[in-house]
Amino acid sequence: MVAGSGVTAAATGGHRLSSWSGLIESGIDHAAGLPGVKPGRLDAARSLLDDGDSSALISAGELVTEMLGGRDGGEYARWLGETVGSLELLDRSVPEALLALGAPVATTNYDDLIREASSGWERVTWVNSSGMLRALQGDVRAVAHLHGHWFEPHSVVLGVKSYEELGGSGPAQALQRAMATMSSLLFVGVGDGASDPNFGALREWLAQTFPDSQYRHYRLCLNSDVGLLSAEHDPGERILPVGYGDSHDDLAGFLRDLAKTPSARPSTLRVSAAAGGGVAALPAPPVTVGREEQIAEVVAGLLAEPARPVLLQGAPGIGKTNLTLAALHQPEVVGRFGQRRWMARCETVETAAGLAGEIAATVGVPPGGDVVDGVLALLSMAPAVLALDNLETPWEQDTLAVEELLGRLAAAAGTALIASIRGSVRPSGVRWAQPTQLQPLELPFARRLFTSLAPAGFDTPALDGLLEEMGGIPLAVELLAYAADGEPDLEHLAERWKNERVRLLQREKGDHRLLSIAVSLDTSWNSSATTDPAKQLLSILGRLPDGVADDDLESLLPGEGPAAANVLRRRGLALEQAGRLRTLPPVRHHLSEAHPPNDSDWQRTTEHYRERAATLGTRVGRAGGGEAITTLSREAANITIAVKHTLDGEQPEQGHLAARAFIEAARFSGIDAAPITDALLSAATQSGDASVLARAHFLAGILALARSDHDGAREAFERAQPLFEQVGDVSGQANCIQGLGDIALARSDHDGAREAFERAQPLFEQVGSLLGQASCIQRLGIIALRRSDHDGAREAFERAQPLFEQVGDVLGQANCIKGLGDIALRRSDHDGAGEAFERAQPLFEQVGSLLGQANCIQGLGNIALRRSDYDGAREAFERAQPLFEQVGSVLGQANCILGLGDIALRRSDHDGAREAYEQALALYIGISDPHSIGMTHMRLARLEEGPSARCAHVSAAREAWASIKRDDLVAQLATEFPDCL
Q1: What is the pLDDT of residue 216?
Q2: Secondary structure E strands in 481-553
Q3: What is the largest CA-CA distance in the chain?
Q4: Cα 869 vs. chain centroid, distance in angstroms?
Q5: φ and ψ at 125, to 5 degrees?
Q6: Are 699 and 691 in contact (CB under 8 A)?
Q7: Which has the closest alpha carbon to 321: 350, 353, 286?
Q8: Which of these, 92, 324, 453, 546, is most buried using a 10 Å CB contact count?
């Protein structure tokens, strides 16, 4: 028996010195009356005392010890004698009942009250190891003082140093461990002392050393505290709280009744506890975030009359165990079932008999006889809840027998059954409530979970990107948070994730499914329920970030794909999302490293996605291009993986066509083609073929141009052009010259653009490229339009449009129609402009050109603005802006923001207009667009009241327009702002 301060409280009528905090407070008061004690130390001690937790009290105890001259000092001994040594035994009932049990008695108390309750008892402290051994063996009748006695001041364990001395005492620690190893301990009146460093170390040692012991220790407590204390103890400690009554006055009677029980041994407590409702050896309630609805759903099933069997389903690591525990610790569940809440872990049992044995051990039914009957009898005694965690393991191995056992358990009177199982399957034999299917955590909840577990300083904006890599798997988020321990900041943690991937997501040895993502996943991989075709498909999925479209399953795994996918869905190893079979990022990373696909499966897969890119990419810009873009967008990451794999392989030329087609398509949409572009350039350089390298540089150029990276585009075209000349590719030369003209046009260098298009056009004629000729003519029309040569622009668009029709280039036709709409808008023919934009927009949609669609929507916004339909204009600009952002058109984004500024100005919101103009100006400067820079400065000049600021904007506008020789616009400035020029 181990007696704590509660025994002293019972013996003294609740004297304040019976508590740890009360004793320390008296020490502070005592020190306050001594000379030389600094007020600051007294204040520090009182502050620690107010904190109230064990570590703070120990620190306060150390300060008291020091202020009283240390454990060897006379004042310290005097204080102990006047306090603990002066306590009177007012009520001997509890100490007498303890001694009457006839077992060895140890105590953490410093007083003599237990010994005084009966004659013939001695005392011995931990510093006398041989005496302690005789007392604990029962050879002498002596109370063993584990934390010292007041009469031996140096033995009293009160502050930090004394706890360190006790913790470092080999004999003392060995005795405590032997006491806990060879005997069942009964803790009486032990409150916060169970958390002090000495007993904390003992509890931790028990949990690590004998977690599977069939023997238990017991901690007496109020009935109302059983649930709370059950959560405090790790199951491995084998310490079970037992309620002795509803008030402290019931303790003595409980002990006396226990003494009357034959042999008065702790085994009696086990039987008694089981008969009265066994003690739930539940782990502490876990951190659960974002699962409130699911917890409420589970609790509702458990509390229903009659209870509805609850089934939790989901992928490995998705949080089924944690949610089960969270539900079992809910106050309503504790209130209904009290101590009779159990969780049996089923991952190590493979048969119905093994499952029955695990349940029996969990609820406290002793082995022997028919354990199922014993379990059912115990469950039926009073309301009970039984949780079966990882039920799939025995169910898959011994299906019918396990289902029969489940049916009997669910039928036990007053029993609420809850089971967790991987995947989306449900065992028969039980009429389950609608299963609770756990989904990945949304990002805000994943952030909350991480920050609740990780050290301080990791909650930065960059955290979201790292958490997205966890795929919303709670176990992955938790393990990442633990991996943050010891890392200086998020940047270092992210770098480790980049290098180590799933190997980072484990705790300590990582030898349990709750300590390692890899172990958790491999539990399902190694299951007999995961068929070989399912493993083949899962290995393929491990390489495909976008998952697999359901329609492609048969192509990737002929004859097996759909059935294999069904297994993966049922096992929770893959998720069905919008017609695609997907795996979450941590799953993919582990599969890619530990279970890569075989060569034939991977070759078939890469060929499939290369063919997709090559076929669909050539449709963009033509009829059906919109659908092609949609498919390419969905498969972009998979295509990237497949094409890069081919380009990096022994036959890179097989990937060239797919890469070129994909990059051509990507420039019309927001698809990220940079990785493929870089891989193509690398492969082309290694090939040594000038023609291949020229084409790669050209493709890099048109992609950079589409993303408003004018400098990158110019560099690429200027590298490609001489290579095309070297191999005699006239068409390639013409395309590069046209590309340089497009850059000049984007920068409002109309003379440079015209010169380039007029150079390229005859080269296209030379090789018979109607498409190239039409493109040059259409671009010359744009220059004419920008220079207000509306007739010249119309003539160019009307010449180019039939050429585009002749070659079936729907994109070119749409651009010409849109150009005619721009002319109408410039001439204030709003109806004609609107009709043209509305004709062009579906053509852009048809070919998949987001840029064209955005330009049409912006054009409709400009019409609305000119008609003073400000709401309609705002709606159009706000629709177009994200489309421009998606395709990387900085110019389009800036134009929309400029339009929003014009709306604000029309509504006399000068501050809003100025803010929008300044935002647009920064974007125009970023892409070096002098025309737009000048226009924006002119707008800002109109808003400035002070001549200095106004003239600064006028000067900037004049400089921008002069750089592109727009004397007409400079003259307009002189007219409007004569005082500034």
Answers
A1: 75
A2: 548-549
A3: 122
A4: 45
A5: -110, 170
A6: no
A7: 286
A8: 324
Q: Rounded to an integer, what is the distance from CA 362 to the centroid of its chain? A: 33
**What residue type is assigned to position 130 of the chain?**
S
Q: How much is the pLDDT for 320?
A: 94
Closest CA to 167 of 198, 129, 126: 198
**Measuring CA to CA, which residue among 642, 630, 711, 720 is closest to residue 668?**
630
In the block, residue with structure tokens 């350089």: 685
DSSP lists the bridge partners of residue 415 as: 384
Give dist(CA 621, CA 630) in Å, integer: 13
Predicted model pTM: 0.61
C-alpha to C-alpha distance for 194 and 160, rounded to whole angstroms: 16
pLDDT for the residue numbered 132: 87
Q: Is 368 left (phi over 0), alpha (psi -120 to 50) or beta?
A: left
Per-residue pLDDT tens over the stretch 34-86: 998 888 899 988 988 887 777 788 889 999 999 999 999 999 999 999 999 99
Please state, in angstroms and rounded to a whole number, the distance separating the CA atoms of residues 235 and 213.
10
pLDDT digits (tens, 9 = 90+) for 96-113: 999 888 889 999 999 999
Distances (CA, A) of 904 to 858, 867, 868, 909: 16, 15, 12, 5
Using one digit for the tens of pLDDT, what is the confidence trace for 116-157? 988 889 999 989 988 888 888 778 889 999 999 999 999 999
Angle at 464 between CA 459 and CA 467, to 5 degrees: 100
pLDDT confidence band for 483 (50 / 70 / 90): very high
Residue labelled with tokens 């012991």: 213
Per-residue pLDDT tens digits for 791-834: 999 999 999 999 999 999 999 999 999 999 999 999 999 999 99
Average pLDDT over residues 652-656: 87
Give me the long-range contacts of 745-748 (CB less than 8 A, separation at least 24): 745/779, 745/782, 745/783, 746/705, 746/708, 746/710, 746/891, 746/927, 746/929, 747/710, 747/927, 747/928, 747/929, 747/930, 747/964, 748/786, 748/929, 748/930, 748/931, 748/932, 748/964, 748/966
pLDDT for residue 378 is more than 90: no
The SS3 assignment for 472 reads coil
Strand order through the sheet with 142-145? 122-125, 142-145, 106-107, 2-3, 186-188, 217-222, 239-245
Cα separation, 164 vs 182, whole angstroms? 25
E strand intervals along 27-157:
106-107, 122-125, 142-145
Q: Where does the pLDDT of residue 277 fall: very low under 50, low under 70, confident under 90, or very high at 90 and above?
A: very low
Alpha helices of 747-809 — where are they, by DSSP H? 750-766, 770-786, 790-806
Q: How does DSSP assign 572-611, residue by residue?
A: TSSEEETTEEE--HHHHHHHHHHSPPPHHHHHHHHHHHHH
Q: What is the pLDDT of residue 192?
A: 63
Closest by CA to 645, choosing from 604, 586, 688, 692, is 604
For residue 548, give the nearest of 662, 423, 639 by alpha carbon: 639
CA distance 477 to 495: 16
Give the 3-state secondary structure of 855-888: HHHHHHHHHHHHCCCHHHHHHHHHHHHHHHHHHC
Nearest to 725 by CA among 702, 686, 685, 691: 691
Q: How far is CA 305 from the centre of its chain?
A: 37
Q: Which amino acid is at 856?
A: C
Total Cβ atoms within 10 A of residue 102: 12
With 60 as the cut, is the pLDDT of residue 342 above it? Answer: yes
Report yes or no: 295 and 323 within 8 Å, Cβ to Cβ.
Answer: yes
Can you tell me the distance from the alpha carbon of 358 to that of 104, in angstroms, rounded to the nearest whole number?
33
* Residue 201 reports pLDDT greater than 80: no
First to last CA, the chain: 99
